[in-house]
Design a protein that fits this description.
- This protein is α/β, with parallel strands linked by helices.
- It has a domain of 78 residues.
- An 8-stranded mixed beta sheet has the order 6-7-8-3-9-10-12-11, with helices on both faces. The protein has a 4-stranded antiparallel beta sheet with strand order 2-1-4-5, covered by helices on one side.
Length: 325
C-alpha cells in the first residue's frame, strides 16, 4: 500500500485574467522508502502540488476543485488547519527552494531547529537544544555549538539548506517533500546535499518527493519519475523507463536539451515555443503547438496508455519515440 496516494487532484487559482488551471486530474503515489521525482519546466504545477499536499495553498485565491490526498489512510484535504499543523513535521515535512526566504532572519538557526522539536516532541528546551545540535552535526554543519547561535545571513547557501534539512528531518517524518532544494547551489554543494538526503532517507526508510527541472539530479536519486506539462501528466515510469525508453515528445525534448559531456555540441537543443496560457487551455494535447509530431488526432484529449508495466504516456503518437526530437 502506498504511503501517499493522490487521486484526480485539480487545483485552480482565481486571477484578474480569469481562472488559472494549475493542476488537472493529477494521480500519483509514493511508497515507503522510495523517491518520486516530479519533473517539468516552471509553471507546470510542481510546487502547487507540493503545497497542496502540505496544506499550504492560499485559499482563496487557490481552490481545490476535486480529488483526494491520502497520507497513511488520512485524507489531508479533509483535515482542519489544527490537524494539519499536528501532521506537519511529525508525518510530513518540506524543504523549500530558497532557504534564505524560508528561514526567519531575526531568529538564530539553532533556535529554529530547536523550536520544531520543542513543539512537536513535547520535550524541554534543554532536550530540544541537545537534539538540535545533534541534527546540525548529522547534516554536516561544522562547529555546531558555535553556529547554533548564528543567524541565517551568517550561513552560506549550502549551510542554510542544511539547516532547512535539519528542520525538516527533526521529527523523523514519514514523507519528505524537497522542492528544488539544490537550484541555487553550485554543483559541488549540490552533490553534497543530494548525498546527504540519500543517506538520511535510507537510514530512516523515509519516502521522498523530489521536485526539480534538473534531469541530472533525477538520474541520480529517482526510483519513479512523473513528467508534468501544463498541469497534466505527460509520462510516468521508472528512471530506466524515462531515460532509456522515453515516449512522450515533451520528455524527449527535455532529454535532448541536456548537454552531453561525450558529445561536441555547438548549440543546445531547445523545445520551441512556450507553455500555453493556463487561463485559456484549448481542448486536446496541451503540448500540441510545440510538438514535432502533432496531427489532427492531437486535438482530442490524450489519456495515459501503459506501454510496459508501470510505464505510461499520454500521447497519441508515442510510437514515434525512436525518432530524434
Amino acid at each position: 500500500m502506498a504511503l501517499l496516494e493522490i487521486k484526480d487532484l485539480s487545483i485552480q487559482f482565481s486571477t484578474d485574467e480569469g481562472v488559472l488551471h494549475a493542476v488537472d486530474n493529477l494521480n500519483l503515489s509514493v511508497d515507503q522508502g522510495k523517491t518520486l521525482c516530479i519533473v517539468g519546466e516552471s509553471g507546470c504545477g510542481k510546487s502547487v502540488t507540493a503545497r497542496a499536499i502540505m496544506g499550504l495553498l492560499p485559499i482563496p485565491p487557490a481552490k481545490i476543485t476535486s480529488g483526494s490526498v491520502v497520507l497513511d489512510t488520512k485524507d489531508l484535504l479533509g483535515l482542519s488547519e489544527k490537524e494539519m499543523r499536528a501532521l506537519r513535521g511529525n508525518d510530513i515535512a518540506m524543504i523549500f527552494q530558497d532557504p534564505m526566504t524560508s528561514l526567519n532572519p531575526v531568529l538564530t538557526c539553532g533556535y529554529q531547529i530547536q523550536e520544531s522539536l520543542h513543539i512537536h516532541d513535547k520535550i524541554t528546551k534543554k532536550e530540544a537544544k541537545e537534539k538540535a545540535l545533534a541534527l546540525m552535526k548529522q547534516v554536516g554543519i561544522p562547529e555546531a555549538e558555535k553556529r547554533f547561535s548564528e543567524y541565517p545571513h551568517q550561513f552560506s547557501g549550502g549551510m542554510r539548506q542544511r539547516v532547512m534539512i535539519a528542520m525538516a528531518l527533526s521529527c523523523k517524518p514519514k514523507l519528505l517533500i524537497a522542492d528544488e532544494p539544490t537550484t541555487a547551489l553550485d554543483v559541488s554543494i549540490q552533490a553534497q546535499i543530494l548525498e546527504l538526503l540519500g543517506t538520511l532517507k535510507k537510514s530512516s526508510d523515509m519516502a521522498m518527493i523530489f521536485i526539480t527541472h534538473d534531469l541530472g539530479v533525477v538520474a541520480e536519486i529517482a526510483d519513479e519519475i512523473i513528467v508534468l506539462y501544463a498541469g497534466t501528466v505527460a509520462e510516468r515510469g521508472t528512471t530506466k523507463d524515462i531515460f532509456n525508453h522515453a515516449a512522450h515528445p515533451y520528455t524527449l525534448g527535455l532529454l535532448e536539451s541536456v548537454p552531453h559531456i561525450s558529445k561536441e555540441q555547438e548549440h543546445l537543443t531547445v523545445i520551441p515555443g512556450t507553455l500555453p496560457d493556463p487561463t485559456d487551455y484549448q481542448p486536446g494535447c496541451r503540448f500540441y503547438e510545440r510538438c514535432t509530431f502533432h496531427s489532427d488526432l492531437c486535438k482530442k484529449d490524450p489519456v495515459e496508455e501503459e506501454i510496459t508495466p508501470g510505464h505510461r504516456v499520454a500521447c497519441f503518437h508515442y510510437r514515434l519515440k525512436d525518432q530524434q526530437y
